[in-house]
Amino acid sequence: MKVVNKWTRQGEMHLSTLILLLVLFAALPTDGQNEATFIRKHIKLDMTPANCDKEMEEINKEMEKKNKNFKGCKKMNTFIKDTIENVRKVCTEGFGKNLETNFFQSNQAFTKVECVTTDTKKPCKYNGKEVKAPIHVACDQNNRPVHYGPPKRKG
């Protein structure tokens, strides 16, 4: 009869659980955003290129609150002129192409406004451009968009 040390079994189980959690967390986007933050930063049905300065002022204030070292102007931000319901669909196969773990590209073009800074010193000024193109989003485990942009290139 073989005697099994219960401490060894529990240790193996805890190690397995830890490894599983590490794998799961490694697959999540790292900027800590949630869907509500994504909506505030990127969903704006009535956005126009002329509104970039005003809208980006709010984004920059939010970034300053989050990061006390941030004193400049965010270089770029994209506003999607569509509903969150349509953007959520990109997080599922059939509406979006899975490029990498949790990162999707839409199968359809969305109308969006890209705001790009013309000066990184305050007062921040932006040029806006309306384009129609696929969008790239990172999605959480509940198929909710939490980050805008393609996956970061490695290397």
From TrEMBL:
Domain (Ribonuclease A-domain) ranges: 31-152
Signal peptide: 1-32
Keywords: Endonuclease, Hydrolase, Nuclease, Signal
Protein name as annotated: Ribonuclease A-domain domain-containing protein
SMART domains per record: RNAse_Pc (SM00092)
Gene3D superfamilies: Ribonuclease A-like domain (3.10.130.10)
Homology family: Belongs to the pancreatic ribonuclease family.
InterPro entries: RNaseA, RNaseA-like_dom_sf, RNaseA_AS, RNaseA_domain
Chaperone recorded as keyword: no
Nuclease found in the keyword field: yes
GO biological process, one term: defense response to Gram-positive bacterium
Lineage: Eukaryota, Metazoa, Chordata, Craniata, Vertebrata
Molecular function, one GO term: RNA nuclease activity
